[in-house]
Amino acid sequence: MSVGGGGRIRNIVVIVVDTLRKDYAGPIEKALSSYGFVSYDRVVAPAPWTVPSHASMFTGLYPSLHGSHETRDRKIPYVPYRGRNALARSLRERGFKPCLLTANPLVHPRLGLEGFDCVFEYEMYPRRPLSAREIDAIREVKREIGSPSSGLRLLLALARRGHAAIAFKLPLDKLYRTLWLWQAKRRGWPREKGCSVLLPRLARILEGGKPYFIFVNLMEVHEPYSSLDNEAVGAKALSTGNPPPELVRLWRERYPEHVRYVADKLAEALEHLERRGALSSSLVIVTSDHGQLLGERGRIDHGVFLDDELLLVPFLVRYPDWMEAAPASAPEGRWLSLTRLRDVVDLILQGEPDWPRRLYEETVYAESHGLIWDFSPYLTPEELAALKERYERHRIAVYHGYYKGVFDAASWSLEEAVSYRGPLGEGEREALRREAVRFLLYTARLRRPRLLKRIKGG
């Protein structure tokens, strides 16, 4: 763990501010710059939602290779983590104890995430009396009878279909959720989603004196932003491409407020760590797993799409006091994928003074494999069929030099292409197609059972 300059990195901390897009990260970048953080640009998330993006950070693989992604038949919350946590394992071998602090129910060992010796969870959502399977049964009954005019009609329908136990638990579930929401609002919900608990816990661990690797997921920037947010509204907005104007207005107003709130909380935690001397010997990385759409092009939320607002994320590094910071300016025409997080940490531990030169690449990718939610309870069969026809397919975002394209693997065509500098001609489009096909051939070859087992660390 010794590095150049004669120092020793005592702790490694990775903080994921969930759902934070790069172009709204200014308050956090400004707050952290006071504590010596360096901000790096052109950093690309490998997926537009939590599980595949986190799995890529932990394994170093793109979603097509680690397999922790949505499919036609597997939606939230049934998308498990696959493959070993190479990031945690490599740091344990270096003497750091891996610890997970999470407010995100999708970043948890319950979904197969392994590799952490200790886990502290802040329950952002209540642990409901109803199980996920029971909630699915309720949705199925709702689909059969249509939107019930009363809760009593739904209860009777559940009982008639052999779900008497669920019918009994449903009123208790609603009462429990109401009480939880009342308590959460007293704590500052929806702006406060656990950072006031997780960040002090982080500080106590770092003050213990033992070498830790701590991975933190903060949910304050993630929706909900108001009581208007729900899956039904999101489903209709995705289906029509026309989200309610009032919802868009609220999201655009509340989203930056939540970013500023997290910036203040991070500054408080860093001030405390600096006073206690725990910051000087720590490597701290602050990033995000994906961004958020706030009404751009008639889209809200995240998942499914491969827009820059979802894929370009902040990446800030606070080096130990004795270590020289790598240059903040990214290599010209190159990109950094979050799949390289482990490599970033490894090179910094080795004292590499210019890790961006080695890890920024001419071409990086991001993937979407379809819809991430089961929208059937909220849409008509015709609406759902149209939505699946449009979005249940594998798409690849290709960031190549000064250009970006979105390639549809089903139709084998380039859906869209943009230029970040200069004109975009057929030669540039052909280069984007070529890189997308290269990615598909590369992942297809490595998905052979023996090779896949080897690269996953099996």
Q: Would you kindly provide a written description of the structure presented here, covering whatever features stand out?
A:
The chain has 458 residues and is an alpha/beta fold. It has 16 helices and 16 strands. The protein has helices at residues 26-33, 50-59, 63-66, 86-93, 132-145, 151-160, 164-186, 195-206, 231-240, 245-276, 308-311, 341-349, 355-359, 381-391, 426-446, 449-455, and strands at residues 11-17, 38-39, 43-44, 97-102, 118-121, 212-218, 282-287, 293-294, 300-301, 312-313, 315-318, 336-337, 363-368, 395-400, 403-408, 413-419. Helix 1 (26-33) runs parallel beside helix 10 (245-276). It is globular, with a radius of gyration of 23 Å.
Task: Spell out the blueprint of helices and strands.
Elements: E1 11-17, H1 26-33, E2 38-39, E3 43-44, H2 50-59, H3 63-66, H4 86-93, E4 97-102, E5 118-121, H5 132-145, H6 151-160, H7 164-186, H8 195-206, E6 212-218, H9 231-240, H10 245-276, E7 282-287, E8 293-294, E9 300-301, H11 308-311, E10 312-313, E11 315-318, E12 336-337, H12 341-349, H13 355-359, E13 363-368, H14 381-391, E14 395-400, E15 403-408, E16 413-419, H15 426-446, H16 449-455
Parallel strand pairs: 1-6, 1-7, 3-12, 4-5, 4-6
Antiparallel strand pairs: 2-11, 3-10, 7-11, 8-9, 13-14, 14-15, 15-16
Helix pairs in contact: 1-10, 6-7, 8-10
Task: List its salient traits.
disordered N terminus, four-stranded antiparallel beta sheet, alpha/beta, 458 residues, globular, seven-stranded mixed beta sheet, single chain, 2 domains, Alkaline Phosphatase, subunit A
